[in-house]
């Protein structure tokens, strides 16, 4: 069951889901619009290897925004801290942004119940596009789980800003 916008408002007021800062103007019929933060990450290695920590640069963008070429991939973050111990947040792109040729959060849209932090957006540009900190870029919906709840306590808990992949921590056998 998905929460309506009014139910998101009610559950936020009760402290059962966290969106901070909360702006009532960002509520929609069944989701909440998330805004783009100012920090970005770009991987530097030509080939990304999931068994190791890959080189990257983190940079900040001002009001002038950032221009993405066709084929660019960046990690970005939500301004908002999102999470719930009672509902499962699902991250989606806003259709208006997708129609500009920018894929937002193409994978990993399911946020574990009990996870709280900034959302890391995966941005892939299909067309040249300029984006700006503070723009509405994604949305979060909240779903009611069935069954016993085990709260998330994994490697991305408490994320601040964009986060690079921690996939290397999942490997126990490493190549040379």
How are the secondary structure elements laid out?
Blueprint: H1 5-13, E1 18-20, E2 32-35, E3 39-43, E4 56-60, E5 66-68, E6 73-83, E7 88-93, H2 95-98, E8 102-104, E9 116-125, E10 129-131, E11 136-143
Protein architecture, described:
With 176 residues, this protein is mainly β. It has one domain: Deoxyuridine 5'-Triphosphate Nucleotidohydrolase, Chain A (Distorted Sandwich). 7% of the residues lie in helices and 35% in strands. The protein is built from two helices and eleven strands, in the order H-E-E-E-E-E-E-E-H-E-E-E-E. It has helices at 5-13, 95-98; strands at residues 18-20, 32-35, 39-43, 56-60, 66-68, 73-83, 88-93, 102-104, 116-125, 129-131, 136-143. The protein has a four-stranded antiparallel beta sheet with strand order 1-6-9-8, with no helix packed on it. The mean pLDDT is 92.
Number-wise, the strands total 11
Class by alpha and beta content = mainly beta
- The assigned CATH architecture is Distorted Sandwich
How many domain regions? 1
Spatial gap, N to C terminus:
47 Å
CATH topology: Deoxyuridine 5'-Triphosphate Nucleotidohydrolase, Chain A
